[in-house]
Design a protein that fits this description.
mainly alpha; rod-shaped
């Protein structure tokens, strides 16, 4: 069974709803100290909006800067994946993680054994 809730019946809703800023005369009905605070808050919000615009401009500039730095890496990666270019020995060494050399040697031994099995030597 679903119970619907009448929000207007809950305490405080009518009071909050009646102070909605789009309703005519709302600000005029507020006491002067509250109107003063609202004006100060509006000023702070404008300053915040200016800072937000600056932030977005800086984010766009950083994204552009790093896109330019990433582009050669992306191109090189695409060349490797597509087989257009083979990596240098230095690049391969730089890409190895700790313990990977031992694993690679074991893989080479396994490959040799597999080749010998195929040839019928084992």
């Amino acid at each position: 069974m679903v119970h619907s809730i009448n929000v207007r019946k809950h305490s405080g809703f009518d009071k909050v709803h009646s102070v909605h800023p789009l309703m005519p005369g709302t600000r005029d009905s507020l006491i002067p100290s509250v109107r003063r605070r609202l004006k100060a808050l509006k000023s702070l919000q404008k300053k915040h909006a200016v800072l937000e615009v600056e932030l977005q401009k800086e984010i766009v500039a950083l994204e552009k800067k790093y896109l330019e730095l990433y582009t050669p890496l992306y191109q090189k990666r695409a060349d490797y994946v597509g087989g257009k270019v083979e990596p240098t020995d230095t690049e391969v060494e730089e890409g190895k993680s700790d313990g990977e050399e031992e694993e690679e040697e074991k893989d080479d031994d396994d490959d040799d054994k597999d080749a010998q099995k195929i040839e019928g030597n084992i």
